[in-house]
Each structure stands twice: as structure tokens, then as C-alpha cells.
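Worked example

This section walks through a single chain of length 109. The input is the sequence exactly as stored; nothing has been trimmed or padded.
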Amino acid sequence: MKKVNGNIKALLEVKTVTKNEIGEGVKDWQTLKTLYGWLDLSNGSADYQNYNAKIQESTHVFICDWQPLDVEESECRLTIAGKHYEIVLIDNPMELNYQLELFLKYVGD
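Given that input, the structure is written out below as C-alpha cells.
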């Protein structure tokens, strides 16, 4: 089977929370994996309004080769070229283990 490959380097980062001297939670991001794939803009307007609310709110999609990711969408983000994207949905289309589609929401630099 051919690989997706890609020309975009993305860092899959996981959120960690530690407590400082006065007990406040301090959020930090640790790189879990480096992914190579393709980033595409999704316009967010679809003719099918009832399709999937999570996909409707995404601004971009990142497609890369399949690999096991043992993380929940809510605890990680993708950083590409210094820009941060919230992961809305991680999809393994038809469970073929060929590619991953990460639906993203741009959140800033």
C-alpha cells in the first residue's frame, strides 16, 4: 500500500498540568509525536447541516499516515509552523489503518 507521506510537519502535543508553589495548576504542552502529512482548509459551509456538528466547527483537516494514537482529542493539540490547532476529531476512515484524518480548529499562535 502506498503511503500518504506529506510535506507538512506537525507536532502532536499533550497537555500536562502541574502545581506551582501556591497550588495553582500550570498548563504545559509536551510533544508526544511528530506527524508528516497534508494540511487543508475546510470552509465550514456544507449543504448537509445534520452531518456531524464536530466536523462543522472544524477549520482545517490534517491527513497523515495511520499510526496508533493513544490520546483523547480533548487532551491534545497539533502545532504546525508555530500555529496551534485544537483537535476536534481523530478519524481512521473505515477502520482501514491506512490514514488518519485529524479535524482541527485553529486557535492561534
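What to look for: The CA atoms of residues 37 and 63 lie 5 Å apart.
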